[in-house]
Amino acid sequence: MRRTASFLSLVLYLGFLVAAVGCRIEIIRVRSSDPLNVEEYEKLEEEESTLGEALEKLGAPDEAEYKAGSEEDYLWYLYGDSLNTGLRFLFPPFRTGFYQHTFLRLSSESEEVNAIELVFDKEGILKEKRLRLTEAYQEQVEGGPGWKMHLNPYFGHSLQLVGDAGETDFNDTFENGFRTGVSLGFQPVPMFTLLVGGNYQEYQGSSPFENGRQLNFDDLQLYQFEIGIRLAAPVSLLVTFPDFETVKRVLFEEDLDKPQGFRIYVQGTTGVTYNERVPVKINGTPAGNFYDANWGFSAGVEAGFEYDWQWGAAYVGLQYQGIDPFNEGNTVLDSDGGALQAVLVNGGVTVKW
Amino acid sequence: MRVHFTCWVLCAVFLSGCAVLGKQEERKRIDPDAVARIKKGMPKDEVTAILGAPIEIIFSNKALDPLREHAYVYEHTTVKWTGIVLVFINFGNADEKIDRVMVFFDDDGKVSQIGSTLHAGDAAYGFPFGG
To answer: Is B67 on the interface with A (CB under 8 A)?
Structure first.
């Protein structure tokens, strides 16, 4: 049983590294020059405005050309915006200081240029004007850039405890338990949220019969303080990923009041965890502490689905967390274990303001 | 032997997770005070004395005056690169902003119009979000 659990732990661990670290989602954006000043452009009148007025309102053009024969001045104001989204698979999956080989890269690159074209006659009077805006920029953002705070209470229950607890595996040392906590979120744009929070976890002690002895472990109680990030995007993005306009509307959406609907999310957190001491009994007699109280590092990744309203959201997901090995206690039992790893189903609500 | 799982995770996060900031500048910076000294009616040699040699000249290409200089272009570019690796997501952002001055000349070689855009200093590091 213990060997099976250790093997499962190894597979989960390697799977996590390869899938989460060796696979990279890439979002690369390149912007050149300034966004076009459409408001000033609208003020220019054909057959009235002069070259001087245009230069005063819009500044120096990105390109200019003088057409011989008609003696016309052509001015172009350009704003380039390119987006490259892709998936990269690397080996080895984590940085070791050596070369990481990209053995597969799937990407889609789109480049759009917004343009204003002005044509002036030989007298310097505006003869023609043209504007080209990509669809992604034509809708005006109401309210403009800003940010929102989130209050996010959540509750989770472990499905599986993995790892070597010392005398036995964690799965045999403790029962599956719960995790409840609250986090505060800072959301500058709809798809990205910074998180800070804490939670309490409790796993009821088991009573395994090991080597002819009846062991009784006390409950494992954990206090966790973490920071992290959450990325969320509409489920439809999985289908429309190669479409430039759709991806831009999602990634560069700034309207935080707009309900986002059904979304997928991924979340990564890291921080510290305090564990209470865990007393143990052997054949009913107190036998010291299996683990001493201590602080350790912890980290977790989570993925799931959420439904987003204007005032909040509700979500459910699966979390995989790891906590540093606990300090050995003063018992005669082997308490020199490894990291506690747990798979939890997690759900919660988010209140925004 | 203890398996420090979380240490591995933290290594994965912080060793493969990192931020890279870069800045690239092309050509000489354009002094706003110098641009302000360019006035309409000023001859070309005074313009070049103040702003230096242009990086580009737009010619009129008129039939009778094929090489008349129609406008001088001055340009300075600043690009700020941001690379952020967050475990399994790489964000890359390049923000290029430009200082550009375009000085137009009339048939007598005197300044007729001047346009300037001095935004190279607005280039910023950041995530690839936002409009």
So the answer is: no
Q: What ipTM did this prediction achieve?
A: 0.84
Does an H or E element contain A249, and which?
Answer: helix A244-251
Which of the residues B88, B91, B104, B127 would you substitute to probe the A interface, choosing the one with the greatest number of A C-beta atoms within 10 Å? B88
Separation between Cα atoms, residue B1 and residue A338, nearest integer Å? 8
Domains along chain B with CATH numbers: 18-122 (3.30.1450)
d(CA A61, CA A44): 15
Asked if B113 is an interface residue toward chain A (Cβ–Cβ < 8 A), one would say: yes
Chosen for mutation from A8, A33, A83 (greatest number of chain B CBs closer than 10 Å) is A33
Q: Same domain for A288 and A198?
A: yes
Residue A3, token pair as written in the block? 């060997």
Report the residue of A50, A67, A94 to disrupt the B interface, i.e. the one with the largest count of B CBs within 10 Å: A94
Q: How many CA atoms lie within 13 A of A41 on its CB side?
A: 21
pTM of structure: 0.60
Per-residue pLDDT of chain A (353 residues), as tens digits, is 455 555 666 666 656 555 555 677 788 889 898 888 889 999 999 999 999 999 999 999 999 988 877 778 899 999 988 888 777 777 766 555 567 777 777 777 777 888 999 999 988 899 999 998 876 555 444 444 467 889 999 999 999 898 888 888 999 999 999 999 999 999 877 878 889 999 999 999 999 988 888 999 999 999 999 988 888 888 877 776 666 666 666 666 667 777 778 888 888 888 899 999 999 999 999 999 999 999 988 888 888 999 988 888 999 999 988 898 899 999 888 888 888 989 999 999 999 88
Instruction: List chain A residues with CB under 8 Å of B55.
Output: none
A255 and A182 within one domain: yes
User: How many contacts does A have with B, using Cβ atoms within 8 A?
Assistant: 170
For residues A187 and A325, state if they share a domain. yes
Question: Residues A114, A132: contact at Cβ < 8 Å?
Answer: yes
CATH, residue A279: 2.40.160.20
Residue B110 near chain A (CB below 8 Å): no
Q: Is B60 near chain A, with CB under 8 Å? A: yes
CB A218 within 8 A of CB A286: no
Judge contact between A103 and A94, C-beta under 8 A. Answer: no
